[in-house]
Design goal:
single chain, 365 residues, seven-stranded parallel beta sheet, six-stranded parallel beta sheet, 15 helices, globular
């Protein structure tokens, strides 16, 4: 069997790794890895390939950045000849980025089977680019691998036949379980050095922001930074800045560190796990970090009005603060004063999701 994996952006890389590694155990399966080049900076892509022990991509489409339409169209145009040449039995796509939907559209039009890893997640917010990608990808995919039961319910509601849907658990957590011990070696006793900034366990807040709804709106971004400056009066803030966010902060004159807010470059996967593990609190708008903090039992405040990962709120340690920065200040103060709530790890977030997917794919599901 001939399997082609398509990835493109940072959050895809930790999802493909467990599936690709598990499929290597099947002598009948040949695999190839296509990178769209949606993310191309060393610290957004290459570092992740190294730390995740991913093979170098067989093909890099080198599409780079652009508007959503341009980026999606470029990936489609450049992927079509690649997929025709490889003639895979199945193409596996990951998550909800533009590379995911672009590869899926190409395959659907060529009649090539698509498996979607991390299917069924819905924020029910169509202003979010990823929601469009999720809806289209799931309608077109032939095999849908869901991380949690809510994914199955969403797909059933959209009329997707249940035979196509497989509840397998969370591949992102497979990678976390595999690499957390290595990540924790980065701590020297209770101190961690992140790009020359020293932090102490449980005495810092980790902040990540990159959603267009937060960072592309100057008023919203200024309000968020105002709240973070207030939180920084109580504790040290580590703020690894995504390239999109860096551009927006620079335009507002907010791109540099202050005494208690330490702005650093995008961090590696291992540094991200290490810093999440011992944070007093994580403030984010990322999807993956909501899941990782839930698994790690670390309090997480998500600066969004909705989440496609509601299980992190119902079972985990995540709380949505929406666009209400007073709420962000108030709940942060409570958490930093020790008022945390405990969560549970969702079912099937057990390190074996990649193996389940590989077994199904190899069996020709
Ligand atoms: C993309 C995904 C988002 C995911 C995020 C993780 C879509 C629609 N969005 O958003 O779901 O959470 O990745 O990071 O696919 N840039 C660089 N270097 C890079 C990549 C990007 O400087 O290696 C800059 C470019 O100026 C680019 C901007 O970042 O215009 C945004 O990149 P883009 O790929 O469009 O989307 P992300 O915001 O990264």
């Amino acid at each position: 069997m001939n399997v082609l994996h398509v990835v493109g952006a940072r959050p895809n890389f930790m999802k493909v790794a467990p599936v690709l590694h598990a499929l290597q155990a099947y002598p009948t399966v040949a695999q190839a890895l296509v990178h769209s080049g949606q993310h191309y900076d060393v610290n957004m892509s290459d570092v992740f390939f190294q730390q995740l022990s991913l093979p170098a991509p067989d093909v890099n489409l080198e599409v780079g950045s652009g508007s959503h339409t341009q980026q999606t169209a470029q990936i489609m145009a450049r992927f079509e000849p690649v997929v025709l040449e490889h003639a895979p039995d199945v193409v596996l796509v990951y998550g909800d980025v533009n590379s995911t939907v672009a590869a899926t559209l190409v395959c659907a039009k060529l009649g090539i089977r698509v498996g979607h890893v991390e299917a069924g997640l819905r924020s029910l917010d169509r202003t979010m680019p990823e929601e469009i990608n999720r809806l289209v990808t799931d309608q077109l995919a032939d095999i849908l691998f869901t991380p949690s039961e809510d994914g199955n319910l969403n797909l059933a509601r959209e009329g997707i036949a249940s035979e196509k849907v497989h509840l397998v658990g969370n591949v992102m957590i497979d990678t976390l379980i595999r690499l957390l011990p290595l990540a924790l070696h980065g701590w020297q006793g209770s101190v961690f050095d992140i790009q020359g900034v020293k932090v102490e366990q449980e005495k810092y807040v980790l902040v990540t922001l990159h959603r267009p709804s937060n960072v592309d709106d100057p008023i919203m971004l200024t309000e968020i930074i105002g709240a973070i400056e207030d939180i920084a009066k109580e504790t040290q803030i580590i703020f690894p800045v995504h390239p999109r966010t860096r551009q927006r902060l620079a335009a507002l004159g907010l791109a540099s560190s202050t005494t208690n807010i330490r702005v650093v470059k995008p961090i590696s996967y291992l540094d991200s796990l290490a810093l999440q593990r011992h944070a007093a609190l994580v403030i984010t708008d990322s999807g993956g970090i909501q899941e990782e903090t839930t698994f790690l039992g670390i309090p997480c405040l998500t600066v969004r009005q909705n989440t496609e990962r509601p299980i992190t709120v119902s079972l985990g340690t995540n709380q949505l603060v929406g666009r209400d920065m007073q709420r962000l200040r108030a709940i942060s103060a409570q958490i930093l004063a020790g008022e945390t709530r405990s969560g549970q790890i969702p079912p099937l977030w057990d390190g074996k999701a990649g193996q389940r997917i590989a077994d199904l794919v190899a069996a020709g599901c």
